Amino acid sequence: MTDKTVLSDLPAGWTGGAPDADAFHAMAQAALATLPDVFLQHIRDVVIAIEEFADDATLTSLDIEHPYDLTGLYEGRPLTERSIDHSGGMPDRVTLYRIPILVEWIEGGERLDWLVRHVLIHEIGHHFGFSDDDMHALEDMA
């Protein structure tokens, strides 16, 4: 199988120039489809969004100086902090930042769909109550 054969099966936006937001969303949906059903039932209401960069207010709130340093963000109440007293409100949201992910992809040489999957799963980990340190420790054990 040649590289051309592999690429021909990808949705529009995954080939040629930098993939657009629709292609990123398709990659995120494909990544979600690979998760075990036991997880899917807990993330079905999580909104997946694609933005070019985090805005200044978001970067400031996270004490991040450069917009290229944030590839994804989970916003919501982790499952570990919920109770029946907490209802209503906005749905949980995972935002993938397209340009920083593209820069990391170019610099790292990893497959873009794998990188999108990695960032998405990392952010979904926050939905399940894992901290960044927890997830890095799990990655190191794998």
TrEMBL record:
This is Neutral zinc metallopeptidase. It comes from Sphingopyxis granuli. InterPro entries: Zincin_1, Zincin_1_sf. Keywords: Transferase. Its EC number is 2.7.2.8. The keyword Transferase applies. GO terms for molecular function: acetylglutamate kinase activity. The lineage of its organism: Bacteria, Pseudomonadati, Pseudomonadota, Alphaproteobacteria, Sphingomonadales. It comes from the Bacteria. Gene3D superfamilies: 3.30.2010.20. It holds the Pfam family Zincin_1.
